[in-house]
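User: For my dataset I need records formatted as: sequence, then structure tokens, nothing else. Please produce one.
Assistant:
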Amino acid sequence: MLNKRTATNALILIICAAYLAQQLIPDLQLQLLLPGRDYLQYSNEWYRLITVALTHGGLMHL
């Protein structure tokens, strides 16, 4: 079983890798988001397109 320190370090590494990928590949978010956009609109979950902006607010969020 993983101890808390190992799990925390793994999460930090994953988050840092995702951040670097977003910085190195500027269109990465668009490539990952746009294919699911129509699904959210037409499955009556349109509010998810708006509420995500309220929970993820930039660098200070980190």
